[in-house]
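Handoff note, outgoing to incoming analyst
You'll be picking up this chain. Sequence as last confirmed:
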Amino acid sequence: MNRKFPPVLDACCGGRTMWFDRSDDRALFIDIRNEIVEFSEVSGNTPLAIHPDQVCDFTDMPFPDETFSLVVFDPPHVKRDEPKGDVTKQYGCLKGDWQEMLRKGFSECFRVLKPNRVLIFKWSSIQFPLKDILKLTNEKPLFGHPSGKKMNTHWVCFLKTKQNFSLGFRDY
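Most recent structure output, in case you need it:
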């Protein structure tokens, strides 16, 4: 049976906090977690529901190759053995061989992305610089932009191209 997928995949959706419409039916929301996150009393934040459409790990996604037209990849960005503070409770944390985890995540995201389509990568460089994280993929980013009060959050755009793909431009 062929399953029909929406055009967009959010590969680690968490609480879908960056989405204008957290129920957008154009996207499939996946995450390894399915829980309600309680924050510290100091933060005053209300509990956050992390309820993906499908529970799965971004390092081993159960989707066919070249399924999605757009993939959003916003993985955890803090290394810690367990989520302790509000940030790691909300976004999760990198554990163990986190470089290999992110390498596999990039690989899987590009595997399920259709050719000539876009991957949007979001990274907070509070603990690890973006330049070190981009070394974990062989794909070349198109452009990006830092944002936030301290310019620590980076949005990076990739275009997946096939090997030997040519747009018809001459090599100079």
